């Protein structure tokens, strides 16, 4: 099976059963966890120590790919203007991090997994546009992979490359949008 599509989802405040119902509705086989902190005080059903086992009990695989996790620090090696499009510092930091070898290793691991099973990348944030999944999606699109953002049961959006993204070989830059004025 080639990685024709990779899905994304945020677990949000859904119950475990609701989450499973949604992902099974999209014929998902493996949940790829891209949370830097794979636990939640408010939604303990997603704590890594029990989540993977519960997924296995309902016939779903689980993989944790730490290299794709969010919450990255400000880069000391990437000039600020390279990803100046991102006003939100968290997204800016992640876009900088996505230029690293570590991110590339995580992306390759995800692509390898997706060749053998239908995968969904999962984080906590409900909507993709408020999550680092949006930048991961851009990198998958760059590799020719269709990305589908799951919003709810039977509701999903096909991802499109961020219009601010500039292809630089196998990476992306998000330069600040400039406006010409008098």
TrEMBL record:
InterPro entries on file: DUF488, UCP024492
Top-level taxon: Bacteria
Pfam families cross-referenced by the UniProt entry: DUF488 (PF04343)
Protein known as: DNA repair protein
PANTHER family linked to this entry: BLR5642 PROTEIN
Organism, scientific name: Pseudomonas fluorescens
């Amino acid at each position: 099976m080639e990685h024709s599509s990779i899905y994304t989802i945020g677990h949000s405040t859904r119950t475990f059963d609701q989450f499973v119902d949604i992902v099974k509705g999209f014929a998902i086989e493996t949940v790829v966890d891209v949370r830097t902190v794979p636990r939640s005080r408010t939604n303990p059903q997603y704590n890594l120590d029990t989540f993977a086992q519960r997924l296995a009990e309902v016939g779903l695989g689980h993989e944790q790919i730490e290299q794709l996790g969010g919450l990255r620090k400000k880069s000391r090696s990437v000039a600020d203007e390279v990803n100046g499009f991102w006003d939100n510092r968290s997204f800016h930091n992640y876009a900088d991090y996505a230029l690293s070898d570590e991110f590339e290793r995580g992306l390759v691991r995800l692509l390898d997994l997706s060749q053998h099973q239908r995968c969904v990348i999962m984080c906590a944030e409900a909507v993709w546009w408020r999550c680092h999944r949006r930048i991961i999606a851009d990198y998958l699109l760059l590799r020719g992979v269709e990305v589908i953002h799951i919003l709810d049961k039977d509701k999903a959006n096909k991802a499109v490359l961020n219009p601010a993204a500039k292809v630089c070989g196998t990476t992306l830059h998000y330069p600040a949008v400039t406006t010409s004025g008098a």
